[in-house]
Design goal:
The chain is mainly alpha-helical. The chain has one domain: MFS general substrate transporter like domains (Growth Hormone, Chain: A, Up-down Bundle). It contains 18 helices and no strands. The longest helix has 37 residues. The chain is globular and about 55 Å long. The two termini are 20 Å apart.
């Protein structure tokens, strides 16, 4: 790969262009995921008539995303970043069409298959942040990742502008879900076109600028078990898994919570849009704040804000108040997650980053799937308080652990060497 590295003088423009294109691609992913989050909890209930499986829909696509993440990360290291991201959009198109057919024919098998493909698409496309990390030096890496994640905030606009009008005034039935999922397929097709325009591959830019030595020349990339022994790796992985799993599980149950409070399905898009704005709306400054204030501060502070936001869910009932709570959940997540991702990227060479981020996403999504299942069952049996207090405790424990333990910071460490 080093022989095909780009001349340094040609890299300035592609960095900016690729960053903007990656951000636009995540806008498309955000649009599809917003639909999935809003309706996944109720779609399978509608198809099967079994209310006890409330958390199964989101658990399916979270688990399949987990299963896809590590193989996709390894593929990124072997074949390049954008081939994997583009493949994720192809899967997303197929996922949306299959789910639409499952709703049209009231087929639980097709709906489950569609949700599995939704998860696989998300698990592949979210690895675009590893591509973003390749193009920026360590001292600006959180900022670079944040710029790409910022694209997802524009996907929040699809809630009130696209999804909400499609559901407004309609009683939620499987047939009323067909058109939204076909629209999601079109959005995924736009994302595919954008991803194919990202050239050259971000890894080549990182190689040309020396932002991470490729250890292939010294005997190959280190195995994951060795990477995870590096100072700072367990803490960064714990923070990444906790923040992502907690966020996606609560987010995916929020649609059912809104409806359970007596509001309409269309109202869920206001709550989810507020959550996405919290997740991504401030990322242009979040990355800079993390680089300035330090990643430990961001990890602890972000997790504590997430815990506070989930506590609010036990005390509110209006759409506006729930929107504030979900906004804070997203805001806490972006601080802890970008800080954790930046730490993980700093721990790995270019040829190791894909599989390390893939492992992080795999553990995060499997944990999130488990929390969604448990949370859905607890919500059905006990009520929203069980979800709120349980989620707050899950956020607080690792925050306190990271706060009191000795901090091993990866950014100042030498570039990892091969075995």
């Amino acid at each position: 790969m080093s022989g095909s590295a780009l001349p340094r003088r040609t890299v300035g423009l592609p960095v900016l262009r690729n960053t903007l294109l990656l951000a636009a691609a995540l806008t498309c992913l955000s649009g599809m995921i917003q639909l999935a989050v809003a309706v996944a909890t109720t779609t399978l209930v509608l198809v099967t008539g079994v209310r006890g499986i409330l958390g199964l829909g989101p658990a399916v696509f979270l688990a399949s995303g987990a299963a896809a993440a590590l193989p996709a990360g390894r593929a990124m290291d072997r074949f390049g970043r954008m081939r994997v991201v583009s493949s994720g959009f192809v899967i997303g198109i197929l996922a949306s069409v299959v789910t639409a057919l499952g709703c049209l024919w009231a087929s639980s098998g097709l709906v489950v298959l569609g949700f599995m493909l939704v998860g696989a698409a998300q698990g592949s496309i979210l690895l675009a942040r590893a591509a973003a990390a390749d193009m920026y030096p360590p001292e600006r890496r959180a900022r670079g990742i944040s710029f790409v994640l910022f694209g997802a905030v524009f996907g929040a606009a699809l809630g009130p502008l696209v999804w909400r009008p499609l559901f407004a005034g309609k009683h939620l039935t499987t047939h009323n879900l067909v058109l939204p999922w076909l629209v999601a397929a079109a959005i995924m097709a736009v994302g595919l076109a954008i991803s194919l325009s990202v050239r050259p591959d971000p890894r080549r830019i990182g190689e040309a600028l020396g932002y991470g030595r490729d250890v292939a020349e010294t005997g190959g990339a280190a195995p994951l078990r060795d990477i995870l022994r590096r100072p700072g790796a367990p803490v960064a992985l714990l923070a990444a898994v906790t923040s992502f799993a907690l966020m996606v599980s609560v987010m995916n149950l929020s649609g059912a919570m809104v409806v359970g409070m007596g509001h309409s399905q269309a109202d869920t898009f206001w709550v989810i849009s507020a959550h996405i704005v919290g997740m991504y709306g401030l990322v242009p400054v979040v990355g800079d704040l993390i680089d300035r204030a330090g990643r430990r501060f961001a990890l602890v502070g972000g997790l504590l804000v997430m815990g506070l936001s989930t506590l609010l869910l036990a005390w509110v009932a209006s759409v506006a108040a729930m929107s504030v709570a979900l906004f804070l959940l997203g805001l806490g997540w972006i601080f802890s997650y970008v800080a954790a991702t930046s730490e993980l990227v700093d721990l790995a060479a270019l040829s190791e980053r894909g599989k390390l981020i893939g492992l992080s996403d795999q553990l995060s999504s499997f944990t999130g799937a488990g929390l969604a299942l448990v949370g859905g069952a607890a919500y059905n049996a006990i009520g929203i308080g069980s979800v709120a207090y349980g989620a707050a405790a899950i956020a607080a424990v690792p925050a306190l652990l990271i706060a009191v333990r000795r901090w091993a910071h990866a950014a100042g460490a030498p570039e990892p060497a091969g075995p």
